[in-house]
Amino acid sequence: MKCIYCGSEENKVLDSRNNDETIRRRRECLNCGRRFTTYEYIEKIPFLIVKKDGSRQSYDREKLLRGIKVATYKRPVSVDDIKEIADNIEKTVQNRMLQEVKSSTIGEMVLSALKDLDRVSYIRYASVYKNFQTSQDFIRFINEVE
């Protein structure tokens, strides 16, 4: 790590703090004695979503968050809960080291998380995700849930 003031590569770490996504390090240059802060980020492996029609697109966290937010609208589900669902899905995919994930797999993961969190949000998400064709399909699903 080069000192931002003198360019020397000789420095020592005074303090490290870990966050979920970053490591903050406070450093002191051994050449000029000045202090500076560096941040290290965990590199995430990008992955593709395989849609029902077989097309592929880059994973978009914002799209996932939007879908969950719509399902949880006016429900007792916090923004932190929504972010946690997305974080857990991303961690699961990253841990499996997959380059491609079916959209249905992501949908099932969201459904599983919402089922434990809020039943109404779960049913809302399922109504879009499962693409019910008739009211009878919807009623059958609700009866299965209860």
Q: Outline of this structure?
A:
With 146 residues, this protein is of the alpha+beta class.
Helix percent reads 40-55%
Shape: elongated
What's the overall average pLDDT, rounded? 89
Q: Identify the strand order in the major beta sheet.
A: 1-2-3
What is the strand and helix layout of this fold?
Elements: E1 11-18, E2 22-29, E3 35-41, E4 48-50, E5 56-58, H1 61-71, H2 79-96, E6 100-102, H3 103-117, H4 119-129, H5 135-145
Parallel strand pairs: 4-6
Antiparallel strand pairs: 1-2, 2-3, 4-5
Helix pairs in contact: 1-2, 1-4, 3-4
Any descriptors?
alpha+beta; elongated; 6 strands; 146 residues; single chain; three-stranded mixed beta sheet; three-stranded antiparallel beta sheet
Summarize the structure in words.
With 146 residues, the chain is of the alpha+beta class. It folds into 2 domains: 11-41, no CATH class; 48-145. The protein contains 5 helices and 6 strands, in the order βββββααβααα. It has helices at 61-71, 79-96, 103-117, 119-129, 135-145; strands at 11-18, 22-29, 35-41, 48-50, 56-58, 100-102. The chain has a 3-stranded antiparallel β-sheet, with no helix packed on it. It has a 3-stranded mixed β-sheet with strand order 5-4-6. α1 (61-71) crosses α2, α1 packs across α4 and α3 packs antiparallel against α4. The longest helix is centred in the middle third of the chain and has 18 residues, at 79-96. The termini are far apart.
